[in-house]
Design a protein that fits this description.
transmembrane helix; transmembrane; Photosystem I subunit O; 2 strands; membrane; mainly alpha; PSI_PsaO; two-stranded antiparallel ribbon
Length: about 150
């Protein structure tokens, strides 16, 4: 039985070629009608030169942050939120006053019914909306999205 395994035998491979298995170091050349010959498969997501050869969905600096937008956006929100429009008080004044009131009893957190939460949400919502529109407007104008 051992003698039959030690003798070189031939195998009929795919595509009708006859291959000898006497030298195990060499791979038998297999071919098929289903495989393309000589073409290596390439990953379409791997683009040469893009982000060092890595595939990315967004630019590396997708935020494109600019300190001009942050500065002008903060000023652009502080100015209108400081107008005394709510019972003769401004939104910024009401928010800062509520911070002071809540800090007066510091270890205890603000109650859920406290006006602090309303002023906190309104003030920050206005700030973030102003910063978002500022980013859109500033970057849009710098990159010629808005053609006049």
């Amino acid at each position: 039985m051992a003698a039959t395994f030690a003798t070189p035998s031939t195998v009929v491979g795919l595509g009708g070629s006859v291959t000898s298995l006497s030298s195990p170091s060499r791979k038998p050349p297999l071919s098929s009608g289903f495989l393309r010959s000589g073409v290596t498969a390439r990953n379409p997501l791997r683009l040469a030169g893009a982000s060092g050869g890595r595939f990315t969905c967004f630019e590396r600096d997708w935020l494109r942050r600019d300190f001009n937008v942050i500065g002008f956006g903060l000023i652009g929100w502080l100015a209108p939120s400081s107008i005394p429009a709510i019972d003769g008080k401004s939104l910024t004044g009401l928010f800062f006053d509520s911070i002071g009131t809540e800090l007066a009893h510091f270890p205890t957190p603000p109650a859920l019914t406290s006006q602090f939460w309303l002023w906190l949400v309104l003030w920050h919502l206005g700030l973030f909306i102003t910063l978002t529109f500022g980013q859109i407007g500033f970057k849009g104008r710098n990159e010629d999205y808005f053609k006049y």
